[in-house]
Write a structure and sequence with these properties.
The chain has 879 residues and is an alpha+beta fold. The chain folds into four domains: 2-87, no CATH class; 127-335, no CATH class; 492-527 and 744-879, no CATH class; 535-743, no CATH class. Strands 2-3-8-5-7-6 form a six-stranded mixed barrel. Strands 13-14-19-16-18-17 form a six-stranded mixed β-barrel. A four-stranded antiparallel sheet has the order 12-20-11-21. Helix 12 (340-378) packs parallel to helix 25 (744-782). It is found in: Cell membrane. Keywords: Cell membrane, Membrane, Transmembrane, Transmembrane helix.
Length: 879
């Protein structure tokens, strides 16, 4: 019953206050009666009783504090009081809320992406036990199909294993083929993941009976709706993949898009039928590493135990296949980021961006700390009055903290709302149009929890700063008129330090953003071994029109000759994989005469390309020596190659390479007939890599990328190309884009880094402007009388500005210098984010200094005008 009465007190607080007053009055009356009985006069008895019981307000607070339910009521009263205080100061409230919304919103967005990429498991059953088998050699993260079969059969740590790879095919159903992205998967893929179809059925391992034995596909929900209008009768019908019939078995569930976080395929097909679709079989090629292998651990098995078991299996496989690999090794990684292809760079990048976002929030908190300190100083007289009438220092501090937490939660709510909208935008954003890439970063409970924690921390920490002022406030001294302002102005060293830290953080972030911009500029103008400007790219895979690798050559030659006849075209040629296009292959290369073709005996691993005559001219690649390929370099002619400078130096040192031979991994002897400049092949930040080029007729490849160089406008050359290619084969699907547009894939990381750092720099600049503006405005407002006296005594404008804004400008300069030094020291981190990033670039330093000067001018413009507009006569009359 006592508990129920305590909670009932929450709803009858007025009556409880009257009861407490009555109880106190009864005790005072009893004390008065006792004093009178002891011989005191009624006046002395009353005075003694009141002195003994002390301040009645304090006594009531002590009674309330002893009752938890009444303390909750006090908390509610503190919140209402904080709301009234904020309504009285809308400018203060709006400044704090917007400042926190910027800092918290940036952190929620970054954490949402970090959570989606690295923390949240795949959306499949048992995802926490799912691991990927990456190859142990750096730069070769995938497995071969024979190795997958052996690992699956011989390991004792995984309950099952499945393999998959990403690709595309031309899908048609009675019309022209359209490029559609796919997963080629092992037959047990869906069963291992525990996924159930929403329509029809999946294919299983029992459907496979050798190569080309399972002509089935499973549609994604998106393709089912977009191409087949969500018709359930599509199950059992047939579509063509690269002119080969495949039956539609079913439709995958709506939320399932495979086992890669970013890649959204349009259909799944059995891996055993890849030769039928692609004209090439890797199922028996142990050295062809192109598969992702994943599997769930058995109950009770740790990743370390599983890795040890796989290494033992790998050693056994190496002994059985000595010419395959030198010490086959396996690493277990988290699935979903294409092994370490994306997972390796993504982790440090996101960690660094999260650190920068926390720096923005720290700058916001420092800004708020200065604002709260100034607000507490302005309210010192109010606080002194409350202390003098009996309120405790703890009660005052609690109310100040409540006010800080209320406003911080409001800022956090606004920031989270903005961040949620940004995350939804990112989930529908397709950053690289030619690839089905989507970043699914919908906010979840973990994201919202981080937002709440950041909001509380951002409110409590700055709100604690006035505690020192509250604890040191002398009520008698604070009530004396004219002393508060002067004393505050002499004791602003803590605010100066906080503002200096904020300016330093701002300068650091601005330096980082400018380094990113300069790195992006360098990446666009870096020597790449080709000239994308002025070139049009026609991309197709001739297998989508039914051509094989061998039958594609005559059509490819007709395409080149027809494109060369277009008015204004200065060069045309084909390549099987575009440099920096996200594809390509590499071979192990040996010296002439090598008989033991193990990796340990190879000189290097070189990028390999098949090109036509005329490609080098069309691409703008400089031929440094020797000759280009001609149409006489036929399949039955001697095998020839063109290599780049790095290849020639690694193979022959400083000796001439033209006319020399080397041995390919297929035991073919190649004659070097030309040397070209080095280039970029996989990513912009790579070190010089060896590369070799082979004639189109000797390196048959149905994948065809036609490069056409012309001075014509892109729209005109695209229209002409479309007409001539359609005349050659109307069923052949192709895409036409300028070569600079095709660089969106390799430029995506530096562009994201530049945009992210630029946003962080802008947020930091906004916070710095508000911080300097707040300090300058506060200084001028508190010194109006002093400045008016200076003007009356004949002070010049320069002297007046020095007195009014000297301190803010000193803090700005000191903080800027510290931030620039931090930016220089952070060069290693910045270099990891963007291409050729260096804060020692003179343009970066000049730009950062100019930006900080501009911030200072913007922040002090209004306070300076107010100081210059002082009318001393009006101020003295007001006094």
């Amino acid at each position: 019953m006592a508990v129920f009465r305590r909670f009932a007190n929450l709803f009858r607080r007025a009556q409880v206050d009257r009861d407490i007053d009555a109880e106190l009055q009864a005790h005072i009356a009893m004390r008065i009666d006792a004093n009178v009985a002891a011989g005191m006069s009624p006046e002395e008895a009353l005075r003694d009783a009141v002195l003994r019981f002390g301040n009645r307000t304090v006594a009531k607070e002590r009674v309330t504090a002893s009752d938890a339910t009444l303390s909750l009521a006090d908390l509610g009263r503190d919140i209402r009081y904080a709301g009234r205080q904020l309504r009285r100061s809308p400018g203060f409230a709006l400044t704090v809320i917007l400042t926190l919304a910027l800092g918290i919103g940036a952190n929620v967005v970054v954490f949402g992406v970090l959570n989606a990429m690295l923390l949240r498991p795949l959306n499949v059953t048992g995802a926490d036990r799912l691991l990927e088998l990456a190859n142990g050699r750096p730069g070769d993260d995938n497995q071969s199909y024979p190795d997958y079969v052996d690992f699956k059969a011989r390991n004792s740590a995984f309950s099952d294993m499945a393999a998959y790879r990403l690709g595309y095919a031309g899908m048609s159903s009675g019309g022209n083929a359209e490029k559609s992205w796919e997963y080629e998967v092992s037959g047990n893929y869906f069963d291992m993941l525990g996924v159930q179809p929403q329509l029809g059925r999946f294919f299983h391992a029992s459907d496979e009976h050798g190569p080309n034995s399972a002509p089935y596909i499973v549609l994604s929900d998106a393709l089912w709706h977009s191409r087949f209008n969500g018709d359930p009768r599509v199950v059992g019908t047939t579509v063509d993949l690269n002119k080969h019939p495949f039956a539609i078995l079913g439709v995958a569930p709506k939320g399932f898009h495979g086992t890669e976080i970013f890649f959204w395929p349009e259909f799944w097909m059995p891996m055993v039928n890849e030769q039928q679709v692609e004209g090439y079989s890797f199922l028996t090629k142990r050295g062809n590493h192109g598969l992702f292998v994943i599997g769930p651990l058995k109950p009770g098995v740790t990743p370390r135990q599983a890795e040890d078991n796989l290494l033992a299996v790998a050693h056994q496989m190496t002994r059985e296949n000595p010419t395959d690999d030198d010490g086959l090794a396996v690493r277990l990684v988290k699935p979903g980021l294409m092994g370490d292809v994306l997972g390796g760079p993504a982790k440090p990048f996101l960690a660094a961006i999260m650190g920068l976002a926390l720096l923005v929030l720290l700058a916001a908190c420092v800004n708020l700390a200065g604002i709260f300190a100034a607000r507490a100083a302005d309210r010192s007289r109010e606080l002194a009055i409350r202390l003098s009438i009996g309120s405790t220092r703890w009660r005052i501090l609690r109310q100040l903290l409540t006010e800080a937490v209320v406003v911080s939660l409001a800022g956090g709510a606004l920031g989270t709302l903005i961040a949620t909208g940004m995350l939804k935008f990112l989930s529908h954003w397709q950053p690289i149009s030619e690839y089905p890439i989507h970043v699914t970063v919908v906010a979840d409970g973990r994201t919202y929890l981080i937002a709440v924690l950041l909001s509380l921390a951002a409110g409590i920490l700055p709100g604690l700063l006035p505690a020192r002022q509250v604890w040191q406030t002398d009520a008698t001294d604070a009530l004396k008129s004219g002393t508060t302002s002067a004393r505050i102005l002499r004791r602003l060293t803590l605010r100066d330090l906080l503002l200096g830290i904020q300016i330093a953080l701002c300068a650091l972030l601005l330096t980082s953003s400018m380094v990113a911009l300069r790195g992006m500029e360098r990446s666009l103008h870096a020597p790449m071994g080709f000239v994308p400007e002025g070139a049009m790219v026609a991309d197709t895979d001739m297998q989508m029109a039914g051509y094989s690798d061998n039958s594609a050559f005559p059509v490819q030659r007709r395409m080149i000759e027809a494109a060369s006849q277009i008015r204004g075209v200065s060069g045309a040629g084909t390549i099987d994989s575009l440099p920096l296009g996200g594809g390509g292959s590499n071979w192990s290369v040996y010296r002439e005469g090598t008989t033991d073709l193990r990796n340990s005996n190879s000189v290097m691993t070189a990028q390999s390309y098949g090109i036509s005559p005329g490609y080098l001219r069309a691409a703008g690649t400089t031929l440094l020596g020797g000759r280009d390929f001609t149409w006489d370099d036929k399949a039955n002619a001697p095998k020839v190659a063109i290599v780049n400078q790095t290849f020639a130096h690694k193979m022959f040192g400083d000796e001439p390479a033209i006319g020399r031979h080397f041995l390919g991994g297929d035991k073919t002897n190649y004659l070097i007939v030309g040397i070209v400049e080095n280039g970029k092949y996989e990513m912009l930040t790579e070190d010089p890599m060896p590369a070799m080029f082979f004639p189109l007729d000797q390196e048959h490849e149905a994948n065809t990328i036609l490069i056409v160089r012309s001075d014509l406008p892109p729209s005109e050359i695209a229209g002409a190309l479309n007409r001539v290619l359609t005349e050659i084969d109307p069923t052949l699907p192709f895409s036409l884009r300028t070569w600079p547009d095709r660089l969106s894939f390799p430029l995506f990381p530096p562009r994201i880094a530049t945009a992210t750092l630029g946003v962080m720099g802008m947020l930091a600049a906004m916070l710095a402007i508000t911080g300097v503006f707040g300090m300058a405005t506060y200084t001028v407002s508190k010194r109006l009388r002093e400045l008016g006296i200076r003007v009356a005594l004949g002070a010049h404008r320069a002297q007046l500005m020095r007195a009014a804004l000297g301190r803010p400008m000193i803090v700005l300069l000191s903080g800027s210098l510290a931030g620039l030094i931090l930016g220089v020291l952070a060069s290693r981190l910045l270099a990891a984010l963007v291409y050729e990033a260096t804060p020692r670039d003179p343009l970066v330093l000049i730009g950062a200094v100019a930006a900080m000067i501009l911030i200072g001018l913007i922040a002090t413009w209004i306070p300076a005008r107010r100081a210059l507009a002082i009318n001393p006569a009006q101020l003295l009359r007001q006094d």
